[in-house]
């Protein structure tokens, strides 16, 4: 599956898409068009599945105004890679019933997929996955973020994640007292 | 690499003594590690390099050890970069190190020489793998050897700035005040922000937006953290702290008093309701049905807190119910037991089914004697109900153990109960000699653990196990309570005394017992910090094990190196009375959930101990598996199951 950025190319792929009706065209907030196979989209994203089933897919590009082109590119990339990897029943079930099914550790390619992302791209991807209802992708990205958090001190987290410390000194000390053991770990 | 403010500051900053308030520029740019110089010069003078020196540690501003040559190239490129190098070169393993060449020992190094050094190519023969941090004790030996040899100590030792001194270790040598060191470090961090990242860690110039994660995503992320990280990161910001808590979380930060009753959340086992009238946890086999019958009764199918709770539990990460599962909840006083089942496939509780006992298995237990509820009745060995004066912890109002006879066969499950007024067996010892009893499922069989007092010592009987003598004497007359949890081929027995707060500083201990039946004595958990009693001065500092549950946390990596008591002591925290209310044995690691009462609150009376838990905060302690006895146990002897009630569990399973 190709990711098109120019309009001319998009035009072409749209023709291809019309030819075999196998794909869904998605349009990012800044107007770029991406194609993803209908089957993968429906399987991985509950929102897209609903749109496909409901017939609200626009052949000229379904507008996803909340998702920037970079994030959408990542999403499409993920879908394609996912389609290429061995589809496992467990994955599907886990994406269906998140609440009860155990989270499976990310597979190798998923790990690589999120590892190459920058913080911002990761953030956008999480938001996009959330918007599109892609449980598995959400799991993988959240897993990655928690991996980034592991073993860090609150100070480091604040620095890395750019979070303002809104505790007062007294509150901080209280937390430290309360959870003294946690601050002595690793 | 860019050279920042190289020449100007270099000229300004005199090499010898930095003022104590020396800023980053001063400290870092000026200080050329003289040993580097020495080494360099020795090399230039034709000394062999091999075996001379090792630059063993360099820490950069991020606290990462960097290879030595990185440091040197950084120096070479410019001193702006050097601002990142917090640390230090430890010159070790070199017989010549104690005597640097003459010119390098001079108290000042002129700028030209220095810069020529800095612009020299990095020594090519530095060991690449020499990034191991040396203890500063070694450095001190080195340092004193300088003094002893009455050489002029190298320049770097005179500096008062810990960072530039070459003491990268967090615990600086005494001449560096920690405050100073910290200040310098933070100023370095700022400087590091200003310059670009020369260290391996990728730094973002623009602020990361990851902090703006939506609450839902934040919850997902936090739920994946191991417990220690999770708790620690609650300190990041208010929003993070307010994020929904995974199970085993701490109760709210406010400290409820013992007499401020109603809103007290009680012990929060995972997600016990805040307003539950009587949050008494009930033990269950394989873990996690910590709830009471009142809660279930009060809960209607539509708006049931229990359903919500267990559903919430089933999605939590630490106590995860895998796959299709059922939660079996056994309720009621023993003659009229009922059972409720939670089915994950329908995601709902089924109707409460009264249980009927199959009497063919226990001939002796058919005579159920109704007793007044003020007295306690316990399961005994042969199936009779006996009124005793045993201690009973509040959290063990009901106990059940569900055992499969042969592994996975659900239909063959046997449920054992220990109830406040249950029918049970003839006593093992005369009345007033048994103090506490618990049943535990372990290795496909149920065991009764009886704490009894006999011949002036308390003895713990896990069928065959005996307490170590010292422990026996310690617990004599202490009216201790046993709580057990079984896992694999072991039984953990928590012995706690109700008198811990009194004059007898008895406390409690934990045993790990392998009920092998070969007459071996119970093995004490080595160094088990579950219960500690301070000598003399601080009688409040006690931990008391009140209950043991078997849990299956998904990730229990929060392993502590010492008990929270020790840590609190180290931190000079106020004394607090603690009670371990929950012990988890998972794999080979033991997790203990502790509830603390705030310092100064009065000691719980007996009534309170038997009533509600009113405790301040929760602490999760892990004991590393190395503390557990490593002895391999033979498979447990097939002791005859306590043939009390063979309940037709039928289609029911239990939590794995």
Automatic annotation (TrEMBL), chain A:
Chain residue ranges for the region called Disordered: 1-21
Residues covered by the SKP1 component POZ domain: 23-84
Quaternary organization: Part of a SCF (SKP1-cullin-F-box) protein ligase complex.
Species whose genome carries this gene: Digitaria exilis
Keywords, sorted A to Z: Ubl conjugation pathway
SUPFAM superfamilies in the cross-refs: POZ domain (SSF54695), Skp1 dimerisation domain-like (SSF81382)
Keyword Iron appears in the UniProt entry: no
Domain SKP1 component dimerisation per the UniProt entry, residue ranges: 136-182
Function text: Involved in ubiquitination and subsequent proteasomal degradation of target proteins. Together with CUL1, RBX1 and a F-box protein, it forms a SCF E3 ubiquitin ligase complex. The functional specificity of this complex depends on the type of F-box protein. In the SCF complex, it serves as an adapter that links the F-box protein to CUL1.
Pathway: Protein modification; protein ubiquitination
One GO-annotated biological process of the protein: ubiquitin-dependent protein catabolic process
Family, per entry: Belongs to the SKP1 family.
The protein, known as: SKP1-like protein
Automatic annotation (TrEMBL), chain B:
Residue intervals of the F-box domain: 207-241
Residue spans crossing the bilayer: none
Positions of the UniProt region annotated as Disordered: 1-25, 188-212, 242-311
Regions of compositional bias (Pro residues) in chain numbering: 244-254
Biased composition (Polar residues): 291-306
InterPro entries, sorted: F-box-like_dom_sf, F-box_dom
Pfam family, one: F-box
Full protein name: F-box domain-containing protein
Native organism: Digitaria exilis
């Amino acid at each position: 599956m190709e990711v098109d950025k120019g309009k001319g190319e998009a035009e072409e792929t749209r023709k291809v898409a019309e030819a075999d009706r196998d794909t869904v065209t998605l349009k990012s907030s800044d107007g770029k068009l991406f194609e993803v196979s209908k089957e993968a989209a429906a399987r991985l994203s509950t929102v897209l599945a609903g749109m496909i089933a409901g017939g609200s897919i626009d052949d000229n590009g379904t507008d996803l105004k909340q998702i920037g082109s970079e994030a959408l590119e990542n999403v499409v990339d993920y879908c394609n890679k996912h389609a290429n990897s061995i589809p496992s029943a467990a994955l599907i079930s886990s994406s269906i019933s998140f609440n009860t099914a155990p989270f499976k550790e990310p597979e190798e390619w998923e790990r690589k997929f999120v590892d190459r992302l920058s913080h911002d791209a990761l953030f956008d991807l999480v938001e996009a996955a959330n918007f599109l209802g892609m449980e598995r992708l959400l799991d993988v990205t959240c897993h990655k973020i928690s991996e980034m958090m592991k073993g860090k001190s609150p100070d480091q987290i604040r620095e890395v994640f750019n979070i303002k410390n809104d505790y007062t000194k007294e509150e901080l000390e209280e937390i430290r007292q309360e959870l003294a053991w946690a601050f002595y770990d690793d | 690499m860019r050279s920042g403010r190289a020449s100007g500051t270099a000229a300004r900053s005199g090499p010898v003594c930095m003022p104590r308030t020396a800023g980053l520029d001063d400290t870092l740019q000026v200080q050329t590690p003289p040993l580097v110089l020495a080494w360099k010069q020795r090399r230039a003078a034709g000394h062999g390099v091999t075996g001379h020196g090792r630059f063993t540690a360099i820490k950069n501003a991020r606290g990462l050890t960097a290879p030595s040559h990185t440091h040197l190239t950084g120096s070479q490129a410019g001193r702006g970069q050097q601002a990142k190098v917090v640390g230090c070169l430890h010159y070790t393993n070199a017989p010549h190190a104690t005597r640097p060449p003459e010119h390098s020992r001079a108290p000042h190094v002129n700028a030209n020489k220095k810069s020529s050094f800095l612009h020299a190519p990095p020594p090519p023969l530095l060991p690449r793998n020499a990034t191991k941090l040396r203890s500063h004790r070694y450095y001190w030996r080195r340092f004193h050897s300088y003094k002893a040899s009455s050489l002029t100590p190298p320049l770097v030792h005179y500096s008062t700035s810990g960072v530039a001194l070459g003491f990268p270790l967090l615990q600086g040598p005494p001449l560096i005040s920690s405050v100073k060191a910290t200040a310098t470090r933070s100023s370095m961090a700022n400087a590091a922000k200003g310059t670009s990242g020369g260290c391996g860690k990728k730094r973002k110039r623009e602020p990361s937006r990851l902090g703006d994660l939506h609450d839902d995503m934040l919850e997902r992320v936090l739920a994946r953290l191991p417990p220690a990280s999770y708790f620690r990161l609650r300190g990041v910001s208010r929003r993070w702290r307010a994020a929904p808590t995974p199970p085993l979380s701490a109760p709210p930060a406010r400290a409820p008093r013992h007499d401020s009753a109603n809103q007290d959340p009680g012990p929060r086992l995972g997600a016990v309701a805040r307003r539950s009238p009587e949050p008494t946890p009930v033990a269950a086999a394989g873990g996690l049905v910590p709830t009471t019958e009142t809660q279930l009764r009060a809960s209607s199918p539509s708006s049931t807190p229990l359903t919500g709770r267990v559903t919430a539990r089933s999605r939590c990460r630490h106590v995860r119910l895998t796959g299709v599962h059922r939660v079996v909840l056994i309720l009621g006083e023993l003659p009229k037991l009922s059972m409720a089942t939670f089915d994950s496939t329908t995601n709902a509780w089924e109707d409460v089914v009264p249980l009927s006992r199959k009497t063919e298995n226990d001939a002796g237990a058919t005579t159920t004697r109704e007793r007044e509820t003020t007295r306690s009745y316990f399961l005994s060995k042969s199936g009779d109900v006996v009124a005793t004066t045993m201690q009973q912890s509040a959290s063990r109002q009901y106990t059940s153990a569900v055992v499969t006879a042969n592994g996975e066969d659900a239909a063959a499950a046997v449920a054992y109960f220990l109830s406040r007024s249950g029918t049970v067996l003839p006593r093992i010892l005369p009345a007033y000699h048994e103090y506490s009893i618990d049943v535990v499922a372990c290795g496909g069989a149920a065991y009764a653990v009886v704490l009894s007092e006999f011949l002036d010592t308390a003895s713990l009987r896990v069928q065959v196990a005996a307490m170590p003598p010292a422990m026996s004497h310690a617990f004599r007359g202490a009216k201790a309570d046993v709580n057990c949890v079984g896992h694999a081929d072991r039984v953990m027995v928590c012995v706690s005394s109700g008198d811990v707060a009194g004059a007898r500083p008895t406390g409690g201990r934990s045993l790990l017992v392998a009920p092998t039946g070969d007459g071996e004595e119970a093995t004490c958990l080595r160094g088990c910090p579950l219960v500690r009693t301070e000598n003399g001065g601080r009688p409040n500092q006690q931990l008391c094990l009140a209950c043991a549950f078997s849990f299956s946390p998904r990730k229990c990596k929060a392993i502590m190196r010492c008990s929270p008591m020790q840590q609190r002591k180290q931190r000079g925290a106020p004394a607090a009375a603690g009670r371990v209310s929950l012990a988890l044995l998972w794999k080979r690691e033991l997790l203990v959930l502790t509830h603390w009462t705030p310092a100064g609150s009065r000691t719980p009376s007996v009534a309170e101990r038997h009533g509600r838990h009113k405790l301040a905060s929760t602490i999760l302690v892990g004991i590393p598996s190395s503390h557990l006895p490593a002895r391999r146990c033979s498979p447990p002897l097939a002791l005859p199951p306590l043939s009390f009630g063979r309940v037709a569990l039928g289609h029911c399973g239990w939590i794995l």
